[in-house]
Amino acid sequence: MADNPPFDLHAAHQYFSAENFNQTWEFIQKDERTDEENLAMLHSAIASLWHWSQRADATPKNLSVSYWQVSRVFSLIGQPDHARRYGLLSLKHAETLEPFYKGYAYEALARAEALADNRVIVKYYLEKAREMEIQVADETERNLLAQDLETIQ
Fold first, then answer.
1. Tens digits of per-residue pLDDT, 41-80?
2. Could you give the domains of the chain?
3. What values do phi and psi take at 34, rounded to 5?
4. Second label for 57, Cα 20 to 30 Å away, from 47, 93, 118, 137?
5. pLDDT attached to residue 1
6. CA 83 to chain CA centroid, nearest Å
7. Is the pLDDT of residue 23 over 70?
8. Quick check: helix, strand or coil at residue 46?
């Protein structure tokens, strides 16, 4: 890669971290996806994470959410080992954050373990997520987390 690209590199990372994140959400929200769309969803989630990781202004919150999104995508496409890995990274970056973000990191891990049929571990992560849920001050955020936790079988 050129030492001095002919564009503003920081602006490019800002643009693509957000653009790919939003594109991934569009795929996540679809009721049905083709194999090609699943692959595009995975690529856009990883691209968003990579661009976030290149930003000097990335916070633990940005990284936790981005790792969470990649974990969710891997769960959606049926890859529990990768979902677990990125869920653990989400949790690592959420350690100093508000309960909402820790709760979602635990949600990602519970979802990955449910996919892997590790029922005891699912129960543990759901308990941790629910501990965080009751600590979430914002009612909208608390309800959002609660609704997502209810979808884990």
1. 999 999 999 999 999 999 999 999 999 999 999 999 999 9
2. 15-150 (1.25.40.10)
3. -80, 170
4. 137
5. 55
6. 9
7. yes
8. helix
